[in-house]
Specification:
This protein is of the alpha/beta class. The strands form 5 sheets. Strands 11, 12, 13, 14, 15, 18, 19, 20 and 22 form a 9-stranded mixed sheet that branches. Strands 1, 2, 3, 6, 7, 8, 9 and 10 form an 8-stranded mixed sheet that branches. A 3-stranded mixed sheet has the order 16-17-21. Bound molecules: ligand BES, manganese (II) ion and zinc ion. Zinc ion (ZN) binds next to strand 14.
């Protein structure tokens, strides 16, 4: 069954499990909303908790810090901090993960005082998101967890309010189901997630959505289509390459924007002949994150019935060292005719994306967005909590920053600095696949820019944020599927405005 969430009611909550009470922290003191009953399941709930008491019980203005008032038979109470603001989405995500961690398999009824929560639907969506994302566990796919939101107000909350909260809960469930689906594929052992097997898994899941069609191109088709970058990267592997091509086209979509997503699908990156050190290879099954992210995003757009066209393209390959592997010094010809001197076979992502981006330019995109675990340099620049993005449009960049603010997936815009173009010049081909002189995430982006034919374009380098090694807040250990929520937020704004952001 997995994770479930819905509206709950204070009158008929179960008499086992947990009741969670949100605390607002101001100047070290915790306040409880006046709406919350002073007596809950046999416990007295004071209106305020002093600084001393909070400190000794580990509750602070850090959202998600919590303490439990235990009863040995029946309901226990979780007192959980929402920090200094009752209307901060990120704080509610942390509250969601904190209460699920405490409750384990037991149900949580979270009191949701509407007198102080003015952004009820956004906060409800956030708390359910945080809960559902945090309970993901690769080893326990069937793990049960339940979160009920119990809206409270001076009067009985009206049915309109309840309906908006209910639909926010449903949106959060749709989003997290697909994010967790992507995380599971990313966390799978790479032998079980070969290009063939993954392409099949994508096609199967997307096939369940209305208004979605999926094509899987096999190696012959990829060759016939002239995808020289993808073929070149695939040469060192016994596993044949694939390209997944998915479209979402809602009815009456003639005049809607068309956004094309391209995701890097390297199912294992050994580095190829420019082989990686053993330690760097340990997480390289995640190098197909971009592909899972674009497929999950497209499926989510379909699930939410967004009014825009989305195409998702995922070139899929292993990067291995077999006897036919591309050598440092070999030249590949990308679909658009550009020749690339491969000087480091470990810079393979840009080679497969070059073909994917070329395909994207051919179908009248309003905007192309690619997402890839592309460079170690991105981690050096921004660390493991912030992804890099590049945009040819300031208005699109601004909109993405707003979406990022809403979803808690941190982004930082980086420059497409044309002055670094000489770093990818080649002596024997149009360009080479490595830069010289530092700024490795930037030179990779400049490489990709050669393949977007001056269409509006955004590039995400998520090398550092694609995994959360130890788990953090509501991020479970391992894959994060970083970007699905932000891209979907952005696309849903585009869909509701009917046009791309303009200055
Ligand atoms: N998949 C890696 C990038 C990566 C590194 C992702 C660490 C996640 C964590 C990519 O294919 C790669 O190997 N990039 C090279 C490029 C270099 C050879 C120009 C890198 O960043 O070292
Ligand atoms: Mn590589
Ligand atoms: Zn790679």
């Amino acid at each position: 069954m997995g994770f479930s969430s819905s509206l709950g009611n204070l009158r008929d909550y179960q008499n086992v499990g947990y009741l969670a009470v949100p605390l607002l922290i101001t100047e070290g003191v915790a306040g409880v909303s006046a709406i919350i009953p002073t007596e809950l399941a046999g416990f007295d709930i004071p209106r305020r908790f002093g600084a001393e008491w909070l400190k000794s019980n580990g509750v602070s203005d850090k959202a998600g810090s919590a303490t439990v008032l235990r009863s040995t038979s029946g309901i226990s109470i979780i007192l959980v901090s929402v920090g200094q603001d009752f209307n901060n989405y990120e704080s509610w995500r942390l509250v969601g993960s904190a209460v699920m961690r405490i409750a384990g398999a037991e149900a949580v009824n979270l009191l949701f005082p509407l007198d102080v929560i003015s952004q009820a639907s956004g906060c409800a969506q956030a708390v359910v998101e945080g809960a559902a994302l945090s309970v993901y566990d690769y080893k326990a796919p069937e793990k049960e967890a339940e979160l009920y939101l119990v809206p409270l107000d001076a009067q009985e909350p009206n049915s309109e309010t309840l309906r908006t909260i209910e639909s926010a809960i449903e949106d959060a469930l749709s989003a997290t189901e697909l994010v967790n689906w992507a995380k599971r594929l990313i966390d799978m052992p790479p032998r079980d997630a070969s290009p063939r097997k993954l392409a099949k898994a994508y096609a199967k899941r997307l096939g369940e959505q209305e208004n979605v069609t999926v094509e899987v191109w096999d190696a012959d088709r990829v060759k016939a289509e002239g995808l020289g970058g993808l073929i070149g990267v695939g040469r060192g592997s016994n596993e044949p390459v694939r390209l997944v091509y998915a479209t979402y086209r809602p009815k009456a979509s003639e005049n809607t924007p068309h956004v094309v997503l391209v995701g890097k699908g390297i199912t294992f990156d050994s580095g190829g002949l420019s082989i990686k050190p053993a330690d760097s290879m340990m997480t390289m099954k995640s190098d197909m994150s971009g592909s899972a992210i674009v497929m999950a995003t497209l499926a989510l757009c379909a699930e939410l019935g967004l009014n825009l066209r989305v195409t998702a393209i995922a070139p899929m390959s292993e990067n291995m060292t077999g006897g036919s592997a591309t050598r440092p010094g070999d030249v590949l010809t990308i679909r658009n005719g550009t020749t690339v001197e491969v000087l480091n076979t470990d810079a393979e992502g840009r080679l497969v994306l070059a073909d994917g981006l070329t395909l994207a330019t051919e179908i009248e995109p309003s905007l192309i967005i690619d997402i890839a675990t592309l460079t170690g340099a991105q981690r050096v620049a921004l660390g493991d909590q912030i992804a890099a993005f590049y945009s040819t449009s300031d208005a699109v960049a601004k909109a993405l920053e707003n979406s990022s603010e809403a979803t808690g997936e941190c982004l930082w815009r980086m420059p497409l600095h044309a002055g670094y173009n000489p770093a990818i010049e080649s002596e024997i081909a149009d360009i080479k696949n490595i830069g010289a002189g530092g700024g490795g995430s930037i030179t990779a982006a400049l490489f990709l820019q050669r393949f977007v034919a001056d269409k509006p374009w955004v590039h995400f380098d998520i090398a550092s944020t694609a995994r959360a090694e130890g788990g953090r807040g509501y991020l479970s250990k391992g894959a994060t599927a970083f970007g699905v929520r932000t891209l979907t937020h952005f696309l849903s704004e585009v869909a509701s405005k009917g046009t791309l952001p303009t200055a």
